[in-house]
Model the fold of this input.
Amino acid sequence: MEGDEGDGSGDSTGSVIDVTGLRRRYGAAGERGFEAVRGVSFSVRRGELFALLGTNGAGKTSTVELLEGLAQPSGGQVRVLGHDPYRERAAVRPRIGVMLQEGGFPAELTVAETIRMWAGCTSRARELDRSEGARRAAPSGTGAGAASRGGGSGFRGMGLGGHGLGGSRRKGDHLGNSRVAGRGLGGLGLTERGLTGAGVVGRGREMPALERVGLAERRDVRVKQLSGGERRRLDLALALLGEPEVLFLDEPTTGLDAEGRRETWELVRELRDAGTTVLLTTHYLEEAEELADRLAILHEGRIAAAGSVSDIVGQRPSQLSFRLPDGYFVGDLPPLSELGVTEHETAGRTVRLRTPDLQRAATGLLLWARDARVELAALDARSASLEEAFLHIARERSREQGWGSTVGPVGPGEHVGAGEYVGAGEPVSAGERGERGAR
Done:
């Protein structure tokens, strides 16, 4: 049933995204087609940041596109804010924001002109500063400016084919809160008044759109002259113009330097704390570990693990490593079982111990070293990380499918077998490389 959730704010449990048995198939039925999403189910609560992780070809983007209403599922059900995002897109799209992997901006517009253009296509945008609008008129003759003068041609909630109003889905089919209407495009700054005529009230965020993402000093620079990281910031600014209740972030910090990444994280935290529901996909496992309230790890179109970061990381043992002094061997250590060690490995004189009780193992080892009057060089004790849990899941699933140990490094940038390591946390198995087209 569609539209049976009352006020459209989600279900009675507080979920604003509900996915049940979701499937998406590319191509014909049978061996010639490819099923990228295979029975995925999860929910996202209001005000929660939910991260969707997975190896290349796992089905992340294919899943997110269904949540955004860009395609109809081959099977199963999706509800966003209580509505089917594909069949009831007019009810959903004014209330969501989408930051794509690439924005597809018009290269010749300046940053300021791009903001004003998109504000004119956004049905719930906060009011733009009148003085800026008076100082600089909106671009005319092309893009949204020309479309808006056409007087609302039935595009409300339908999307405009990208920030640049054209291009393919992943390179520009932006659909965050978009419409074509006969409104002026205004200017840059934001006020707390909101667009009362459109029923939009500001939520106490008066920061100018570009200051919010650190682009105020680049307002007069043409889009084509921006760096990759600056374009990502501009894309985020546009996704936030409509004050979305639900925000989809697809690789939001790709191309950003360390400082820009941290600033973006802080902004995303502020949005979540203010009540915005966020669904994040990212290659950076540190990013998910820092931001996510809960997450799901996709592998081969299915959810391999789901829960809070601590739930997933807690399934993996902690690690204690050190270098033995000359003349000492592993057999000289206290009985490892008494230290709570479940696994160990050696590489030359370096010893790595894995244990579910890091404090017990570290205490026993240090007491032994003190009594033996030896120094344990390069001593390192650390809890399990999301990266380790992620790689373990990928390896185990690969083994189950008969690929062998083809996934995952032992450290950043270190390759194991035929595995390929992408960015800060995405292994690629040999069996997945041919399926990247159906992401």
User: Anything to note?
Assistant: The CA atoms of residues 33 and 134 lie 55 Å apart. The longest strand covers residues 15-26. Residues 258-273 form the longest helix (16 residues).
